[in-house]
């Protein structure tokens, strides 16, 4: 039963836009502005990392703004089960971790909160798949590189990778072409010019999809 539940957490429609905004180390006001740029550029999902207690306020502020738009916000950098309480209290819709921790996965199952674990090896992918997870975070993606994605899609064609860590709009297409389903972008949303680059990226992806 748990496997079915997890498999249904992130369906094809959840991440139908191939970019997620990852906001880290921002004040509530800064984060809401960055999130708004992301939403206006066509991005649906925002992740706010909560590696510090202060970041909970930022997550709550972005989640409140997201609720007005009817979009989902996730809590990132989950490295312990205690953070799941904070994520839930701030109205996060899903959680993201830099690694794969079975305790966090078990607790996420119990709570019914979607969780996106980080992986960097074939063994970690196998462990995640044992829980029925097929949406996984490739981290740190800029270090792993697009060739890693191509290699892992061979034995694991059903796995959907969200590439985060050092990603930029300018290089995102390379990762998407390698087989990544979603790219996590951060600094691009700190300015209107960066957000415009993301808008152009999404338009390019849409054109390629129609052409393909």
Could you provide a short overview of the structure?
The protein contains 10 helices and 9 strands. By secondary structure, it is of the alpha/beta class.
What does this structure look like?
The chain is an alpha/beta fold and 212 residues long. It has a single domain (2-6, 17-205), classed as TIM Barrel. It is 50% helix and 16% strand. It has ten helices and nine strands. The chain has helices at 2-9, 28-40, 55-69, 82-89, 102-111, 122-130, 141-144, 146-153, 169-178, 192-211; strands at 19-23, 45-49, 73-76, 94-96, 115-116, 118-119, 135-138, 160-163, 182-185. Helix 2 runs parallel beside helix 3, helix 8 (146-153) runs parallel beside helix 9 and helix 9 (169-178) packs parallel to helix 10. The longest helix has 20 residues, at 192-211. The radius of gyration is 16 Å and the shape is globular. The N and C termini lie far apart (37 Å).
Supply the CATH class.
Alpha Beta
Principal-axes shape call: globular
Q: What is the count of β-strands?
A: 9
Instruction: Give the helices and strands as they follow along the chain.
Output: HEHEHEHEHEEHEHHEHEH
Unreliable sequence segments: 1-7
């Amino acid at each position: 039963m748990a496997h079915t539940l997890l498999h249904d957490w992130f369906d094809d429609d959840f991440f139908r836009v191939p970019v997620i905004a990852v906001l880290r180390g921002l004040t509530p006001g800064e984060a809401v502005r960055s999130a708004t740029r992301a939403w206006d550029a066509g991005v649906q999902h925002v992740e706010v990392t909560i590696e510090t207690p202060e970041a909970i306020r930022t997550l709550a502020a972005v989640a409140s703004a997201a609720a007005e738009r009817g979009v989902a916000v996730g809590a990132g950098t989950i490295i312990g089960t205690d953070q799941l309480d904070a994520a839930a209290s701030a109205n996060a819709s899903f959680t993201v971790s830099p690694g794969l921790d079975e305790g966090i996965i078990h607790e996420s199952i119990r709570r019914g909160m979607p969780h996106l674990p980080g992986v960097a090896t074939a063994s970690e992918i196998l462990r995640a798949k044992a829980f029925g997870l097929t949406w996984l975070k490739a981290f740190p993606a800029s270090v792993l590189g697009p060739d890693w994605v191509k290699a892992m899609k061979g034995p694991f064609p059903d796995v959907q990778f969200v590439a985060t860590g050092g990603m930029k709009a300018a290089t995102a297409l390379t990762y998407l072409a390698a087989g990544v389903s979603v790219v996590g972008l951060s600094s691009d949303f700190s300015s209107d010019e960066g957000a415009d680059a993301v808008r152009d990226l999404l338009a390019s992806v849409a054109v390629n999809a129609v052409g393909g």
